[in-house]
Amino acid sequence: GVTTTDPAPTTTLPAQYSPGEVEAGLYEGWESRGYFTADAASDREPFSIVIPPPNVTGGLHLGHAFEHTLMDALVRRARMQGKETLWVPGMDHASIAVHALVEKELAEEGTDRRALGREAFIERVWQWKAAYGGQILDQMRRLGDSVDWTRERFTLDEGFSRAVQTMFKRLYDEGLIYRAERLVNWSPVLRSVLSDAEVDHREVEGELVSIRYGAADGSGPSLIVATTRVETMLGDTAVAVHPDDERYAALIGTDVELPLTGRRIPVIADGHVDPQFGTGAVKVTPAHDPNDFAIGQRHGLPMPTIMDDEGRITATGTDFDGMDRFEARVAVRERLREQGRIVAEQRPYLHSVGHSERSKEPIEPRLSLQWFVAVDTLARAAGTAVRDGRVAISPPELAARYFAWVDHLHDWCISRQLWWGHRIPVWYSPDGTEQICLGPGEEPPAGWRQDEDVLDTWFSAGLWPFSTLGWPDDTADLRRFYPTTVLVTGYDILFFWVVRMMMFSVHAEVNEPGSVPFGTVALHGMLRDKQGRKMSKSRGNGVDPLDWMDAYGTDATRFTFARCGNPGADAPVSEELVQSSRSFCTKLWNATRFALLNGATTDGEVPSIPTGADAWITGRLQQVVADVDRLYADFEFAKIADLLYHFAWDEVCDWYLELAKVTLTGDDEGAADATRRVLGEVLDVLLRLLHPLMPFLTERLWIELTGRESVVVAAWPQADFTRVAAGAEREIAGVRDVVTEVRRFRSDQGLKPSQRVPARVDGPLGDYQQRAVRHLLRLTEPGPDFTVTAALTTAAGVRIELDLSRAIDVAAERARLTKDRAAATKELEQAAAKLGNEAFLAKAPEKVVLGIRARREAAESELARVGAALSALPVG
RNA sequence: GGGCGCUUAGCUCAGCGGAAGAGCACUCGGUUUACACCCGAGCGGUCACUGGUUCGAAUCCAGUAGCGCCCACCA
Asked: What is the Cα–Cα distance from A579 to A559, expressed in whole angstroms?
């Protein structure tokens, strides 16, 4: 009701927070301000980060947006710390995503990509590329990205090819890449080999069929073998038994009849066979089972391949030829049954079967000529780089998983029979007797033809940390930003990608001997839905981050991701969480608006000796800055978000802003000015701390608050503990205790929060505390007709007498006090029990004993206080 | 078969040796001159189970039971 004489301070902040407008208005022009260009001649500390691949299924999915947010936060903070930052993006993985899209499109059209041919396929990929690259740019930008997402940085295919070829030739020349016929994981759907890492083992219900080999009718020797893949018997070339197995001693070295084929196969002795398992006799199919392959090699057995690249039976000379493997499994079994050779069947038989990770069907072990990387020395060096601390893994617990991989890596099959990717740079002479590996720019002799196979995705991805910076050339980027500062990625990709990057990078020794790809590998977990399930499109619980960005704003979406950033741990994410983040954004908006409407400023000196709430919040601010820094060191994004959320909401908004009103609306102009300055300071620092997690909103608010150019390049806050005033915290705690206690009383008494109540306040409260308490509780000065109808005393001994203009609700008050008494009684019992324990007194640290003593005393006085209040209540 | 991890309020999770916490949900009250995407007050838990170590255990150790993830060539 007071008319202000001074003109009210104004702000251009609209009353309503609208994320769309904030984001649209702000991004424009960022690039032109030159914040994002790296300067190779700068003497600032470099900070670089490698961007993991976009999801192969196309677009920007939730997990990628999540990861992107964490990385962007690190980069933004580094830049505010004055470091020179660089993201290391590249086109290669975007290409892969496009390839996948084209494949999908062809499948939908019903076009056979084999019929289309490689050249036409690549042509189509290129048609897509511009559009798709643009899509990625748009999505990245909407995330509030701090990268120079120019098309140049996305057009690195040439460079990648050069890097890939250079690395291949180097390993080839060193004898670390070789071609060999091995038993590999074969995908009949993809018609390609897969690496061990691309195979998922899943429990399936199959069958275990026991078959009699040899004489079917007891007219001669026979033995029984069991298998889950009956059809492979067509490719058997032996039966193996353990050398010491007496049951079969007489048969070793003899031949038995292999049913259905008319062939005879030897019975051999091999130590690999477990005599305790099954019958102790094993059928041996060297070309279609890894164990059998090993046995076959040891015994020099023939290794006939009986399946083609699509999983059809072939070249057995039986009428099963041409059948699909699963069809043949039934047909062969039934034929054997007709011949009386099935002696036992277990169905369902639960066993583990490898499946293609991408195409989902069971993989078929198959003998095949492929290219391999001998990983032994590479993997050992990659392990050493972590063991000796050159590369840190965060959280440290996950280093065990890393070691589990590098220490037990099999040779890596790098050739693929896919239609896209970098081709193996090896050429064969026309007669096929000679081969040559060529480096970039080298021409093969006329008439020589290049190997048809392409390289595994992870071969080129493994070069990422340095190929993106221009390797094999000695570039300025490479010298300045390699090794990269940190790699942020999910733990699920540790063995796929991280291990490959480590092996190649350590081996390449970019810049100098012993160099590594990154200083730290920061691993985050997977985003899951509320039920803890993995997000996936097929399950229908997947979320497009763009939908959230549209509905709640990019800042709310990003803050939500930050809240999920637990090192190495999965986190559930849900629409409710984004909603709560959006509320937080709105809260910050309104708080800043309030501050500006009340003349908050960042101009002029901050009061050197603030008082009351100003002193308290200034001290708290220093602690928060220090805590945020500590948490960043461990990549504890979720805790950073949580800390800032609660500090901003529970302390700054709920208490400081309310307390600030005491001085802002008071008569003391000097105090009001001091508060305006502290208010400006608190929001300034808070917005800077929040900027990495919500760039748009903080930019808009910070510019409005400070009138300066951009929070993007504002200095990162520094904690200054000389600004923590002794006693300030206690002073405000005193206010909070009284206010909370009286609010509780008022609520129980059914008093509206807005109702003004005449009251007398007595007890150990300073002037400032008195005023604060009166203001927050809407207590008015007692008038001439003041009648005490209610009184309460707080634990600290503050007495408040109120005139409610009516009798109090005795029952409600008794209930309240009874509850207090129960709590105090329990507290007293616990404390007394401890203090009555001789052993506790003798052995517990003095600090703890003193703490318990203080608790006992507090409980005793609380009990006395509540008891007195209870007995003062009218009976009934 | 081998690792690793988890089990705390209805739900999702923090806490990881010295007074049981948060968000959401729920109940009650509220047009308090920033904010109903809000404010105030409240309800709600033998911290999976059983032993052990300790003056003291949600927290450390062992075992049990469920659940999850990763790895693995047992026919």
From this structure: 11
